Amino acid sequence: xxxxxxxxxxxxxxxxxxxxxxxxxxxxxxxxxxxxxxxxxxxxxxxxxxxxxxxxxxxxxxxxxxxxxxxxxxxxxxxxxxxxxxxxxxxxxxxxxxxxxxxxxxxxxxxxxxxxxxxxxxxxxxxxxxxxxxxxxxxxxxxxxxxxxxxxxxxxxxxxxxxxxxxxxxxxxxxxxxxxxxxxxxxxxxxxxxxxxxxxxxxxxxxxxxxxxxxxxxxxxxxxxxxxxxxxxxxxxxxxxxxxxxxxxxxxxxxxxxxxxxxxxxxxxxxxxxxxxxxxxxxxxxxxxxxxxxxxxxxxxxxxxxxxxxxxxxxxxxxxxxxxxxxxxxxxxxx
Length: 335
Hints:
Helices cover 32% and strands 38% of the residues. The protein is of the alpha+beta class. Strands 4-3-2-1-7-6-5 form a seven-stranded antiparallel sheet, with helices on one face. A seven-stranded antiparallel sheet has the order 11-10-9-8-14-13-12, with helices on both faces. Helix 1 (71-89) packs across helix 8 and helix 5 (265-279) crosses helix 9. The termini are far apart.
């Protein structure tokens, strides 16, 4: 943990303090008898203004001053630690290929943003981590188009979302070259893995074969997908107008998860594919009760940074446990 002596102002109190920057939170000691902890999950934004570091929280603000020549070091260490937890909340598992800093902008279905960010290219995604809560993981398997525009790079996903990075300086050429190569490789592996799933479906269903058969008998379209191109686990869903049921085929026992939605079925399926790929093995994030979610800072950060996962949780209509009445309850849900 990196520690700094400074003057801290927070919650109406100001005084000399020792501030520690950890991997998940900032600790503030010396102001009174207790110790304050600022979780990274509660940080909305951080700025370096006039030799003061302003940290905007979900409730209130913390200001750190009188850091002297360590001011920039403090801000950089804070940003790096915050970025580290942001990336963990995005469940990034790939190999780090290349890192730099530059401008970014994105246009999503429910959000737009632009600023400066730490940009890291991994073996299966692009990580965009600004000094606020707007970090994003751009999965290369869903990139439909990638274009170079002078010193900028533009990506469009299959959902219509757009991402732009620019002002990478001397890193522009090598970054775009590796990004283009990885996009082709990841996309090819993703499509191949799905072809293999369809080809070997009956043998891979295992104990879920009966559930899959029941899904196929419903008045709905059955779709299948993967969490990762390198994971045997997969999911299948029955989707109709405004209704969907999802079954997970993993090493763990799970129920059937029900969803109600008011978008086109194709839009729901696209969001489902993105959400499942985003969470990978952290699948309980999708169905964890809200009260339990509040106790897991990493998951709170994950939802804030993944619109598709938020959408899926918002559509939740409960679950059906695999008991004797399972099929009847499923049929009633789609009736």
